[in-house]
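Bench notes, afternoon.
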Amino acid sequence: MNYEKILYSLSDGVARISLNDPATRNAGSPQMGGELLDALDRAAAESRALVLTGEGKAFCSGVNLEVAGDLVSNPSRDVGSLLDRYFNPAIISMKAMQQPIVTAIRGAAAGVGCGLAMAGDLIVCGEGGFFLQAFRHVGLAPDGGSSWLLTKAVGRVRAMEMMLLGERLYGAQALDWGLVNRVVPDDEVETTAMDMARALAAGPRSLGIIKRVAWAAADASLETALATERLGQREASRTEDFVEGVAAFTEKRKPEFKGR
């Protein structure tokens, strides 16, 4: 597929996917959604870690309302169709990928963009970056997994505040609330995210197992989490990287993991 609304590159085992419609602050469209799904599939096949970011001044300003505006005259309208076809599958794909994902946020992560940002396994946010549940401002309800992702990250009360009041949550406060992992100057967001992703790409195969069991634990009982961890540990112990890790520990050297 030829990409226009996203940029894709691969270096040092890290796939970089960047939403590429800066004129709309990277607002979601059917074309962007289709390209994003394809790029995620590509990254799942050829990378060991992934950075998801946006070109220009914003990460993603939400769904392009000009697209939704075409439906206003239809009494049976359903703006959720864009979610069903593109953005919900993209978020599910991000969760299912074995590769750790770092989302890098400059400017707005609003609407469905907020969901895409929060779907990262690690989140780097610029000091001027912000998360916005913009739905109430246009008479819509949360989407992009925001109701689940926000509640899991910051708790029901704070999530409710963001969704009902629709106020911006900037980097420093997002860090204080537990929504992001790092806050850095805006011009250091990309470098920080890429450095983090390179470290992940150089890590052992078990990072994918860690990701899987952590996501599974988010909506499981303790007993289920224990069983999932047990299976994950068996799988990890049978990898080549585990053998290398033990050898490196014994020989007092840095391990050289191959992702196998």
